[in-house]
Amino acid sequence: MYSKFIKLILPLPSFFEIALPSKEEPNIFHVDIAPQSIACPNCQGRTVCHDRALRRFRHGYAWHIGVLWIELFVPRQRCKNYGFTFTFDYGLGLVHSSTESFRREITKRCHGRSIADVARDYALPYTTVERWFYTYAPEQLVEESAKHICVDEFALRKGHNYATSVLNAETGRILAIVPHRDQEAIESVLKKVVGSIQTVVSDFAAAMAGAIQAVYPTAIHVLDRFHLIQFFTDAPAAQTTLLR
């Protein structure tokens, strides 16, 4: 019965054998995987295990316990035909220290709540939750009429690729996403929104202000709390530096 319960809260392939956690680490479940033939993703030919490493990944969450981790050996395979090497993740979508199932679950928790609140509840970096949220956001786009919206940029890859999104401020649902973060991109994403927009919440960027004025000239432009607090927090520090 306990084994069935664990498989319910930790959805994993049927050929995974989940061991009970230790008393010292009650939130870490070791997974044993029966030997199997792994095909090359390019030529579908035979491969051999080049190396393997024991790693831990966030995979679930339980109240009063916290994040549930799985521990397993992740193989590094080499193709016999071409010498191509690759990491095999058993379809779990392993990235850094989380599975795709965990990332999607955290994304769902962001609906109707701020990313900062979710990040704090699950002891995750804000930028990590933000990246996960917007990675899976295109799958969750909805078309609904809105009166109050939030527009913001986010990093697809920090320092390299950015995009802009619009959310319904009342429901928290994602209404539109476009690549890039310049004024042209912001204007294009705002034009995708359906409804009589009364309020637009954004940061202090000049491109944001220009786009909002161009698309919704009669709407009230509200500066979001996060950047407003950050602005007043940084101002005294900058003044002190100048005085020195």
List keywords for this structure.
single chain; 244 residues; 7 helices; 30% helix
Could you say which structural class the secondary elements and strand pairing correspond to?
A: alpha/beta
Strand fraction band?
Answer: 25-35%
What gap, in angstroms, lies between the N and C termini? 67 Å
Number of helices: 7
Task: Characterize the biggest β-sheet.
Answer: 5 strands, mixed
Low-confidence stretches: none
Specify Rg, calculated over alpha carbons: 23 Å
Number of strands: 10
Give me the secondary-structure topology:
Elements lengths: L1 H8 L6 E3 L9 E6 L13 E16 L3 E14 L5 E3 L12 H10 L5 H7 L4 H11 L11 E10 L3 E8 L5 E6 L3 H9 L7 E4 L3 H10 L4 E4 L1 H19 L1
Parallel strand pairs: 2-4, 6-9, 9-10
Antiparallel strand pairs: 1-2, 3-4, 4-5, 6-7, 7-8
Helix pairs in contact: 2-4, 3-4, 5-6
Describe this structure in words.
By secondary structure, this protein is α/β, with parallel strands linked by helices. It has 2 domains: 101 residues, no CATH class; 100 residues, 2-Layer Sandwich (Nucleotidyltransferase, domain 5). Helices cover 30% and strands 30% of the residues. Strands 1, 2, 3, 4 and 5 form a 5-stranded mixed β-sheet that branches. A 5-stranded mixed β-sheet has the order 8-7-6-9-10, with helices on both faces. A hairpin with a 5-residue loop joins β7 and β8. The longest helix is centred in the last third of the chain and has 19 residues. It starts with a helix and ends with a helix. InterPro entries: Transpos_ISL3, Transposase_DDE, Transposase_HTH.
